[in-house]
Amino acid sequence: NELDDRFGRPPEEVGSLLDVQALRVVCRDAGIQEVRREGSLIIARFASDRSPKPSRVKQALEATDVAMEFDASAGLAVRFEGSRDRREAIRIGRKVLKGFAESGSV
After folding, report:
1. How far apart are CA 67 and CA 42, in angstroms?
2. What is the pLDDT of residues 78-89, one digit of tens each?
3. pTM value?
């Protein structure tokens, strides 16, 4: 990638920071106000005024092979299996949640 070409292989902490920032951008574009991990389970809660339309949910479901479970008991939330490894969980979360984004997120 461009960072490697310009500056050489960055420390792992830099890669983790970039992964987190990319996840934040996807969450912003998808209207997600909170993401948390419970073991290997990832839970993302949408902002009350940004719940996805059915067509966006369909798009997200078709964009990944990761099974999702939805919960509307306290605002809309989506749950799916991630990883116990933090960095891998961030990557999986970004991949899955990107399907809910309204623009061309990272």
Report:
1. 11
2. 999 999 999 999
3. 0.84
